[in-house]
Design a protein that fits this description.
This protein is an alpha/beta fold. It is 23% helix and 18% strand. The strands form two sheets. It has a four-stranded parallel beta sheet, with helices on one face. Strands 4-5-6 form a three-stranded antiparallel beta sheet, with no helix packed on it. A hairpin with a 7-residue loop joins strand 4 and strand 5. Bound molecules: flavin-adenine dinucleotide.
Length: 168
């Protein structure tokens, strides 16, 4: 069972199915996310339409019930048809993530309460703790989809450039 309706959930569902797993996708909304990559969307929609991958939309997980000596693990789902139970071998929760900013705060970096963005200079990536830099998705706080590989590769050279110009 794969939970979620974004790129990660769709990729996981398709990969599992292509490797022989019986896959059910569960998503709390009525449709998959609009931000799904254009080459993945028809793939997943066709797999769902032909019944290769089962899908439950507008469905939430209410409980995980552990396996017993007699039964496999089960999941309690609540959706348009009411409450149902499904047996599962594994559940892949692909519902996004938020950055762990505890380490930054412990080091003295100012982190915005709402956005979880650390305070840093976009030119050098240096935080408000001199000599401490942030690179990659962590710079975006909660907006984890805003900074990815393609648009953050230069952070490394920014940081090295700043180190070279200020510390040597
Ligand atoms: C399904 C999927 C598809 C994607 N496709 C693309 C794509 O096609 N193109 C693209 O540009 N981006 C893509 N992305 C996004 C991309 O993977 C991320 O933006 C990128 O990996 C972020 O890199 P990062 O170095 O900032 O963070 P991460 O890759 O998350 O690296 C952070 C690292 O820090 C480590 N860490 C965390 N806390 C600590 C700690 N306390 N001490 C030590 N280490 C710690 C973690 O273990 C991890 O190794 C995709 C993401 C997903 C999930």
């Amino acid at each position: 069972m794969v939970v979620g309706g974004g790129n990660s959930a769709v990729k996981v569902a398709l990969d599992l199915w292509r490797n022989g797993a019986r896959v059910t996708l569960v998503h709390r909304r009525a449709q998959l996310k609009k931000t799904i990559k254009y080459w993945l969307l028809p793939d997943i929609e066709n797999r769902i339409a032909e019944g290769s991958i089962a899908a439950h939309f507008e469905t939430r997980i209410r409980a995980f019930l552990p396996a017993t000596a007699r039964q496999r693990a089960r999941i309690v789902l609540e959706g348009p048809d009411g409450t149902t139970e499904a047996q599962v071998d594994a559940v892949y929760l692909q519902i996004g993530y938020r950055p762990f900013v505890g380490l930054l705060r412990a080091a003295g970096v100012t982190v915005d309460e709402r956005s979880l963005r650390p305070t840093f200079d976009p030119e050098s990536c240096e935080t408000d703790v001199p000599g401490l830099y942030v690179a990659g998705t962590l710079q975006a706080g909660l907006e984890t989809g805003k900074i990815f590989i393609d648009n953050s590769r230069h952070h490394g050279s920014q940081i090295v450039g700043h180190l070279v110009s200020t510390r040597i």
